[in-house]
Amino acid sequence: MCWVCEKYGKGGKWYLNPENFARRLYKIRKEGKEAAGADADPQAAGMGAGVVAELVKARISGDREWENEIKREALEQAYQTHFGQVVTLDEYLQILDTAYPLAKMTCGCRRVQRGMPDEENFTCMGIGPGMYKWERWPETYRGGVEFVTPAEAKEWAMMNHKEGRVQTVDVFGTPYIGGLCQCEYPGCVAVRNRIDYDFKFLLKGHFVAKVDREKCTGCKSCLGRCQFKALNLEVYTSKAYIDLDQCFGCGLCVTACPSGAIQLLDRQSMPGLAENW
Amino acid sequence: MIAQINIDYALCRDPLNCRKCLSVCPSVVFVCGPTKVWKGQESDSREYKIFGRYYDKCSGCGDCVKVCPANAVQLNFVPREQLARKFREERAAQLKER
Fold it and tell me: How many domains does chain B have?
């Protein structure tokens, strides 16, 4: 179990525990200064990007201790307030039965990093009572929101999985889950910062994908599905290769395999990976 | 060498609507974030600002300079060690203040 489950899972996975979807309405922000236009840091735009500028500096300086300190302090804060974890499609669908209300919204990361126009950028899902108040701060939900039924949400999630997006749960005030992302590298700031700077704002999921080398035919259907740079073709044996250390357990490669040669295993069942979140 | 990306904000006036540099960059170096957030209304697209946030990933291809309709992007390269020294000095000053 990951540390979030130990603390908030009640014996199971934390993001399948209904309590973590049902918090009181969060506080109403004050009138006054904020209403008149609060200052925002444009460089911090995107999920978990507040310390990127500092991280890049530390990385260039070559000072590992500095880099580690930035991460340690930022993550201590993030784990109490706002972070994410990769989940599988099955888990995502289960969550859509638990969380309510469900509202499609635009992806803030791809807007600020790629300038995706709002009408082409509906891939995230806002959930929970906070969504009833989305009009108070429409910039967070730029382009508006579209409330959907659980059945519509599931259909949409399956389409996103098919198209190749990684699904994650996102915390807004630990352990309250207020969002479900469907992301990709490098458009997703959280995925990008994890892969490029090993910034653990986004946690790996509870599974890892393993190739059955007997069953793999080398058809290459899975190539291009991995958003975490963990999958390639072993050319000399013509088999798919998954770097298990690098695998986030999203399952995108699993559903692409026509031979059933990739299996999701419980991370906890693999002693070498059990602590690798 | 490491890129130094300068944006002339007097020339880059409506970055979120323009978004040409965001869209063309092969390394997704840029970010365009809001400088103001309002209650009850979306921020105006002109309240957004472009930064070369991941400048350490810039290859120097120059597509952003070419694509900018306002000539607002300037791209220079400095030796990595020069920049590293500067940041290490900043860090040392930071530690001293503690």
Answer: 1
CA distance A54 to A167: 28
- Give the pair of three-digit tokens for residue B37: 């957030």
Q: Say if the ipTM goes beyond 0.90.
A: yes
Q: Mark B52-73 as b/e (b = at least 16 C-beta within 10 Å).
A: bbbbbbbeeeebbeeebeeebb
Helices (runs of H) and strands (runs of E) counted in chain A? 8, 12
In chain A, what residues touch B67 (CB-CB under 8 Å)?
none
Domain enclosing residue B90, as ranges:
2-96
Residue pairs spanning A and B at CB distance below 8 A:
112
Q: Which fold has domain A207-269?
A: Alpha-Beta Plaits (3.30.70)
Distance from CA of B43 to the nearest CA of A (A): 6
Residue with tokens 């031979």: A259
Residues 24-53 of chain B whose Cβ lies under 8 A from any Cβ of chain A: 28, 30-43, 48-51, 53
Distance of alpha carbon A66 from alpha carbon A72, whole angstroms: 10
Domain boundaries, chain A: 3-21+80-203, 207-269
Determine contact, residues A232/A241, Cβ cutoff 8 Å: yes
Q: Domain containing B35 — which CATH number?
A: 3.30.70.20
Predicted confidence pLDDT, tens digits, chain A (277 residues): 899 999 999 999 999 999 998 765 555 555 566 567 788 889 888 888 889 999 999 999 999 999 999 999 999 999 999 999 999 999 999 999 999 999 999 999 999 999 999 999 999 999 998 898 899 889 999 999 999 999 999 999 999 999 999 999 999 989 999 999 999 999 999 999 999 999 999 999 999 999 999 999 999 999 999 999 999 999 999 999 999 999 999 999 999 999 999 999 999 999 999 999 9
